[in-house]
Amino acid sequence: MKLDKNTVAKRYGKALYELAIEKGQTEDVYQELLSLREILNELPDLGNILSDKRLDLREKRNIMDELVKNFTGIVHNGLEVIFQYGRMYDLSLIIAEYEKRYDDDKGLLLGTVTTAIPLKEDQKAKLATNVAQKFGYQRANLQETVDPSIVGGIVVETNDRVIDGSIKTQIENLRTKLSK
């Protein structure tokens, strides 16, 4: 049975995080994974190239050697295991899973908020406090997106959950109820 990308990412991210806790290196590993994410952002096809079975193993090994020389310990070894299992295309998801666990342990909730117009700083701060409390966190870091098509209200997305308080959705729900 082949596992989907999210399941694989959760397993690898969890394993990396638990090992980092065991070794007392959660912060060091986190910083190295942020550096790795920057590399992946600069070279978005790197994971696919290193996972492609059609490419020559020696060429992939040379690329891999250049990549892992930038990392130590847990991240270096983790990259080697991920490479050996042909899951390099899942690296971004694995990093995101580690980051989620890291942030959870720090009491930080990451998410996005979509509004029809930009929020003022005091509104952002109050919203972040309210969202953090609603989800049981100490604080929230919400990336703001402005989308005039939602008409008004807000949409908050975090931890695979959505709170849709947009006027657009309320109108669509009302339209659906009236058409029954």
Please give a structural write-up.
The structure is a single chain. With 180 residues, the protein is of the alpha+beta class. It has 2 domains: 5-103, Peroxidase, domain 1, CATH 1.10.520; 108-178, no CATH class. The protein is built from 8 helices and 4 strands, in the order H-H-H-H-H-H-E-H-E-E-E-H. The chain has helices at residues 5-23, 26-42, 46-51, 57-68, 73-84, 91-105, 121-134, 167-178; strands at residues 108-115, 139-146, 154-158, 161-164. Strands 2-1-3-4 form a 4-stranded mixed β-sheet. A hairpin with a 2-residue loop joins strand 3 and strand 4 (161-164). Helix 1 (5-23) packs antiparallel against helix 5 (73-84) and helix 1 (5-23) packs across helix 6. It is elongated and about 60 Å long.
